Amino acid sequence: MELKNFSLEGKIALVTGASYGIGFAIACGMAKCGATICFNDIKQELVDKGIAAYKEAGIEAHGYVCDVTDEDAVNALVATIEKEVGVIDILVNNAGIIKRIPMCEMTAAQFRQVIDVDLNAPFIVSKAVIPSMIKKGHGKIINICSMMSELGRETVSAYAAAKGGLKMLTKNICSEYGEYNIQCNGIGPGYIETPQTAPLRERQPDGSRHPFDQFIVSKTPAARWGTTEDLVGPAVFLASDASDFVNGHILYVDGGILAYI
Ligand code: NDP
C-alpha cells in the first residue's frame, strides 16, 4: 500500500486575511510543503507588511487587497489569481473579526458586521472558487471555525452565531460538492496567542495574570495557550491528499479544552 502523501507540491493556495496571525502561519506551513501562496487582506498597508513578512520567511507570496465581504471584489480577486497564478486548489477561509460586546449592548449593525465577515464571506469566497475546482477535478476548502462553533460565551453572541453557522456551511459544502472530489473541513482553534487575543493576556495593574488568562491555562489540559504553529500540521493535513476521505468535519485544535469544560 502506498501512503498518501502530505506534499502540496504544485498546489495553489488562497488564504484569506493572511498578512499575519493564524492565516500567515498556515500559509507559511503550506509553502514549506510546496504550495504556491496567494493571500489577501483588507488594507494595502497590511498586504505590504504581509509580503515583506513572507519574503523574510523565504516565501514569494502573491498578495492582493480585497474585502472578502464584497462579492464583486472577491470574484475579481479569484479571476485575477486564476489569470496570474492558476486555478486555486486550496482555499483557507481565515479572515475573521470578533466584537466582544454584551448582547444587549450590541447594535444590530455590529452583529451584522461580524456575521458578514465570519460567515457570509466564507460563503462568497467558496462560491467563487468551487466552479473551477469542479472543472479541475479536485479542491480543498478549510474554514477556520472556533470553539465558539460549539459553545456560547458572554460577549461573543455574533461571533458564536457566525462560527456555529460556519460549521454548518462546512458540512453543507461537503454534502453538495463531495461528489466532485471537493473536501470541505473546518479547523476549530482553541485559544491561540495572536494580536486578536493579546488583550486577554495583559497583566493586571498588580502584576497578576488576567482572569481570562488564568481561566484558559487552568481549563486547558495542555495548560497553555496554543500557538499559531500548533495549527499548521492540521491545516497541511486537511489540504493534502492524505485527507481525501475526510469531509465535512471540524478538527478542534484546542489543547483538549473542549473535552474538559
Ligand atoms: P484576526 O482575526 O485578527 O485577522 C485575520 C485577518 O483578517 C486580519 O488581517 C484582518 O484585517 C483580516 N480581515 C478582517 N476583515 C476582513 C475583510 N472583510 N476582508 C479581508 N480581510 C479581513 O487574526 P487571527 O489570526 O487571530 O484569526 C484568524 C482566524 O482564526 C479568524 O477567523 C478567527 O476568528 C479565528 N480564530 C482565532 C482564534 C484566536 O485565538 N486568535 C481562536 C479561534 C478562531 P484587520 O487586521 O484589518 O482586521
Automatic annotation (TrEMBL):
<dbReference type="Pfam" id="PF13561">
    <property type="entry name" value="adh_short_C2"/>
</dbReference>
<keyword id="KW-0560">Oxidoreductase</keyword>
<dbReference type="InterPro" id="IPR020904">
    <property type="entry name" value="Sc_DH/Rdtase_CS"/>
</dbReference>
<protein>
    <submittedName>
        <fullName>Gluconate 5-dehydrogenase</fullName>
        <ecNumber>1.1.1.69</ecNumber>
    </submittedName>
</protein>
<comment type="similarity">
    <text>Belongs to the short-chain dehydrogenases/reductases (SDR) family.</text>
</comment>
<dbReference type="GO" id="GO:0008874">
    <property type="term" value="F:gluconate 5-dehydrogenase activity"/>
</dbReference>
<dbReference type="InterPro" id="IPR036291">
    <property type="entry name" value="NAD(P)-bd_dom_sf"/>
</dbReference>
<dbReference type="InterPro" id="IPR002347">
    <property type="entry name" value="SDR_fam"/>
</dbReference>
